[in-house]
What we know:
The protein has strands spanning 3-7, 10-12, 18-25, 30-31, 34-39, 46-51, 57-59, 67-72, 77-82, 91-101, 109-113, 117-121. By secondary structure, it is mainly β. Strands 2, 4, 5, 6, 7, 10, 11 and 12 form an eight-stranded mixed beta sheet that branches. It has a four-stranded antiparallel beta sheet with strand order 1-3-9-8, with no helix packed on it.
Amino acid sequence: QVQLVESGGGLVQPGGSLRLSCTAFGNIASINDMGWYRQTPGKQRELVCTISSDGRTKYADDVKGRFTISRDNRKRTVSLQMSNLKPEDTAVYYCNVESYYIDPFDLPKEGSWGQGTQVTVSS
């Protein structure tokens, strides 16, 4: 099974920037969609953004123009550059692999989640 290791969370003032990174480890030939989700206490985990293996991106409306997702297929990493952060962006951010291939000629395997990294936006 793929394992995801995240880094880059922390405390930042409103209007500031932060970059999250996530690396996938395991027996992987290729990865389909990768993405970032976030969750606050008492609420369901919500989509922040996703990126396909060929670079197509999708963003939640409230982060469009402020967040940028990117990936490096060779390094098996996905990153999230967050700018103009707002207090309402405070959450635990989770990296996600939707599915991946061990054998490119076989069916894709179910993906997994990272352990989560805290992002706090506060003055």
